[in-house]
Design a protein that fits this description.
74% of the residues lie in helices and 0% in strands. The chain is mainly alpha-helical and 417 residues long.
Length: 417
């Protein structure tokens, strides 16, 4: 590892440990441990706010441990800690506040490992699919604890299904990428949603209840409200300590990149510029939540952490704001509350479509955000909440539509000319 990568490991290790320690501080050691253990068996399908189901401390501890699994996978497999892996770690950390647990993540990761062996490729080549693929963790939790099966049969069915989903994921992810051509940053979310459609259909045919229930913390504590701004300021301070001149210079250059997959801001810019971009996105995202009077709960913090993570892998200030404006416009036209669960999560996670704005301009970005909101409020029911990256699924569909229209228009114009 070079000096910059060592610094990145230190920064994200501090964030992970800080999350766990904060959990103990706000809920107490014994209560946090009990809440964490309880979370492993709690409902995990969308939307299950762990700050309600286990308590704030337990949710933060769960978040830190899931992120530690991600960071450990990167380290053990000797994969470079750069834009894609940073995005994966913070996404895992964010969704561990509402759906992911160490217990339901490991079978998915194991399945992707088996897929790598079948393909005779090193696991390192599939590591991102394994980390992002933990979006299907609710499938494991549902089958083990909520399907009506008991004992060893429930465990076997849940683990085998998780392994099977992980095995299928790489092949699906490659095909899905061709559809939207890299303009949906959450490609694995798109792939998990596609796979989740079949899983939910099979479960529904088995007479299992796939109705979605929303658990949403409407009274978040001060610790949750301050969590993202504190991490954002820490990332900004880290970028300045590494090299403040380079951080500022590269931040400006990063705004010029469209962000289409795969755009690694650490490699194409610098660690300093990426950290500063991440920190600013975290502060701006938090400001948005404040302005619309949203709740700083598990799902919203998950959206902010994912926004920040992809601040190293495709998202910048310039390509994100048109999509957010599109979501806001859609809320205005259709009379939706900006602070309601669907719209606020669509604004944060919908920035998966940022590359459309970065590549094709503000108007396309706004249009994509507008369409994304109306889509995302439908798609969760299709996969029964089994795909935690529902915005990735909706984003993939939206991006595929826009890419098809744009490519058709360009081809037609060329033929006419």
């Amino acid at each position: 590892m070079n000096t910059k990568e060592t610094a990145l490991y230190m920064i994200f290790s501090i964030i992970i440990m800080g999350s766990i320690l904060l959990g103990f501080a706000v809920q107490g050691f014994d209560s946090t441990i009990k809440g964490f253990i309880a979370l492993q068996t709690r409902p995990a399908r969308l939307i299950a706010d762990y700050t309600v189901l286990g308590g704030v401390g337990a949710a933060l501890m769960n978040s830190g441990l899931v992120a530690a699994i991600g960071l450990g996978l990167v380290k053990l497999n000797k994969v470079k800690l750069s834009g894609p892996t940073i995005a994966a770690i913070l996404t895992m950390m964010g969704f561990a506040l509402f759906g992911k647990t160490p217990l339901n993540c490991l079978p998915i990761i194991g399945g992707v490992y088996i897929a790598a062996r079948i393909a005779k490729k090193p696991f390192a080549a599939y590591i991102l699919m394994a980390m992002f693929g933990t979006a299907l963790g609710p499938l494991v939790t549902f089958l083990v604890f909520q399907s009506g099966l008991t004992g060893i049969h429930a465990v076997l069915v849940g683990v085998i299904s998780g392994l099977g989903a992980g095995v299928c994921l790489p092949s699906i992810a490659i095909s899905m990428l061709h559809l939207h051509q890299g303009y949906n940053l959450y490609n694995i979310g798109f792939s998990c949603g596609f796979l989740g459609l079949f899983a939910a259909s099979l479960l529904s045919a088995s007479k299992l209840n796939m109705d979605i229930k929303v658990v949403w913390n409407e009274e978040p504590s001060l610790a949750l409200i301050a969590f993202i701004p504190a991490i954002s300021l820490f990332l900004i301070a880290g970028s300045f300590l590494l090299d403040y001149k380079k951080a500022l210079t590269d931040l400006i250059s990063l705004q010029k990149l469209p962000g289409r997959l795969p755009t690694d801001f650490v490699d194409q810019g610098s660690a300093e510029g990426a950290l500063l971009n991440m920190g600013l996105l975290g502060l701006l995202g938090s400001a948005y939540v404040f302005l619309v009077k949203g709740d700083f709960n598990g799902p919203v913090l998950g959206g902010l952490l994912t926004l920040m993570g992809f601040g190293a892998f495709g998202k910048n200030i310039r390509n994100c704001w048109p999509v957010v404006m599109g979501v806001m416009l859609s809320c205005f036209i259709f009379g939706k509350n900006l602070a309601a669960p669907g719209p606020i999560l669509a604004a944060l996670f919908g920035t998966t479509l940022a590359p459309l704005a970065g590549q094709f301009g503000v108007v396309i970005g706004i249009a994509a955000g507008f369409v994304h909101l109306v889509m995302v409020e439908r798609t969760a029911a299709w996969h029964g909440g089994l795909d935690l990256y529902n915005n990735g699924f909706s984003g993939g569909l939206t991006a595929s539509l826009f890419v098809a229209l744009i490519e058709w228009y360009r081809t037609t114009r060329q033929k006419i000319s």
